[in-house]
Amino acid sequence: MDQAITAEEKTRGARFRFLRDRRAFALGRWVVRSILGVDQPPTPFLLQDHGKPHLSGYPTFNISHSGGLVAVALARNAPLGVDLEFMRQDRQMTDLIPVVCHPMEHLHIESRCPKERAATFYRCWTRKEAILKATGEGLRDNLRSLDVKLEQQHPWITSESVPLKLLDIDVKWEGYSCSLAVDPSISGLEIHSPFQSRQLECFD
């Protein structure tokens, strides 16, 4: 796997505390390069203003990993963001709700039964992250200003004047939440599930 990533990426990957996260970091980049045919030798990714990787002249892509799983999304020259999170049920999650959730999101989460609140919060979190990654904004100072319309299954959101459609992805692994933000004009979605990873390929 080390031969499929650049020297700079090896240095970045080594900063992850756990081996599974180091491997997931490398796997995500290898998957993208393999699909695009730029893995031998590995072509370095370019970075946009907020650190989002891209390759000039190639389809848009986005990568996320958490808890040892990887999500990779690709689209043909369209805004795109994917976020994958391993769900934890702890005090920190409860403390984050009033800090990162829009008032309408907060009400929706509180209306769920206790067993559903963690999954609902993480659906909110991954939707927000997918939007911010699609627009290249990075983390906002005020996440509470962004309402991802938890009461809707596939909402359309306008962020930074960019219209996006949100999709909640079932990764088939218990305890994970994954969301995808794509251009509303994209009509087809293909999901591939190899062993110990999740590759989400989106085509218009």
TrEMBL record:
Q: Does the keyword Ion transport apply?
A: no
Does the record carry Transferase as a key word? yes
A molecular function (GO) term: holo-[acyl-carrier-protein] synthase activity
* EC number from the UniProt entry: 2.7.8.-
SUPFAM superfamilies attached to this UniProt entry: 4'-phosphopantetheinyl transferase
> Could you name the domain of life of the organism this protein comes from?
Bacteria
Q: Which GO terms describe its biological process?
A: lysine biosynthetic process via aminoadipic acid
4'-phosphopantetheinyl transferase domain boundaries: 79-154
What is a single cellular component term in the Gene Ontology annotation? Answer: cytosol
Cited Pfam families: ACPS
Keywords, ordered alphabetically: Transferase
Q: Which family does it belong to?
A: Belongs to the P-Pant transferase superfamily. Gsp/Sfp/HetI/AcpT family.
Spell out the protein name for this chain: 4'-phosphopantetheinyl transferase psf-1
What organism does the record attribute this protein to? Pseudovibrio axinellae
Q: Please name the taxonomic classification of the source.
A: Bacteria, Pseudomonadati, Pseudomonadota, Alphaproteobacteria, Hyphomicrobiales
